[in-house]
Amino acid sequence: MSYLVLARKWRPKTFDEVIGQDHITNMLRRAIEQGRIGHAYLFTGPRGVGKTTTARIFAKALNCESYDKPTPTPCNKCPSCIEINEGRSPDVLEIDGASNRSVEDARELRNHIVYAPNGRYKVIIIDEVHMLTTEAFNTLLKTLEEPPSNVVFIFATTEPHKVLPTIKSRCQQLDFKRVPAALIAEHIKKIADAEGYSLSKEAAELITMRADGSVRDALSMLDQLMAFAPEGKITQDDAAYLLGIMP
Ligand SMILES: [Zn+2]
């Protein structure tokens, strides 16, 4: 069996599981409950704090088949939720603006918008939207001017100042924060426990210090430390050594 990195294995599947972004998850839950779903959202914030994860949960919330309308608590059991969790939903298109695939991206985007969704909504998630190629961008702008009612765009960016005003003005902007160290420490302790490792408090502190608010970075460090600790114990010295931190 291939090893699944912790950040993927422990990726939050519900709004409740997202840590440190309550101001955003609460807002999205309320919008869903009140039936006020926007056409376009711009998720801003540093890397590894939950932007794409939250976008996928939102996509599940919009299309979950266990309910007859969008729900703040997607079931993670119906075919739609499972397909989205596995990254193979025909209703969800993810484009990485940083990858250089101009023509394909623009074509995929157009196709995706033209055809009606299988479920309730087509969700188009564009990561690092400020880096999108011109072709894809032009397609996007045309659509944003007259958005079809069953399409929701979720743009994510680490550099909101580079997103064109023409895009920004059509989006509801939600700013993700660096996750507080205490929350990350608690989170990685819980995961280390569940994986059968004992992570010392001091080691957890070193990881959170280095992670600087990024859950993904913290988990990737924990990955490294777990690989280095066959006895199942992760001490402060191991962490300092492996993370290259001087005592
Ligand atoms: Zn579901």
What does this structure look like?
The chain is of the alpha/beta class. The chain has two domains: 6-175, 3-Layer(aba) Sandwich (Rossmann fold); 181-242, Helicase, Ruva Protein, domain 3. The chain is 45% helix and 13% strand. The chain is built from eleven helices and seven strands. A five-stranded parallel sheet has the order 2-3-4-1-5, with helices on both faces. Strands 6-7 form a two-stranded parallel ribbon. The longest helix is centred in the C-terminal third of the chain and has 14 residues, at 181-194. The chain is globular. The two termini are 37 Å apart. Bound molecules: zinc ion.
Question: Outline of this structure?
Answer:
45% of the residues lie in helices and 13% in strands.
CATH topology of the largest domain: Rossmann fold
Number of helices: 11
What is the CATH C-level name of the largest domain?
A: Alpha Beta
Computed over alpha carbons, the radius of gyration is 19 Å
* CATH superfamily (homologous) name of the largest domain: P-loop containing nucleotide triphosphate hydrolases
Residue stretches low in confidence (pLDDT < 50, at least 5 long) are none
What is the topology, as strand order, of the major beta sheet?
2-3-4-1-5
Q: Kindly report how far apart the N and C termini lie.
A: 37 Å
Question: How large is the share of residues in beta strands?
Answer: 5-15%
Assign a percent range to the helix content.
40-55%
Give the total of domains: 2
Query: What is the global morphology?
Result: globular
The main sheet comes to: 5 strands, parallel
The helix/strand order is HHEHHEHEHEHEHEHHEH
| Number of strand segments | 7
Ligand catalogue: zinc ion
- Category by helix and strand content: alpha/beta
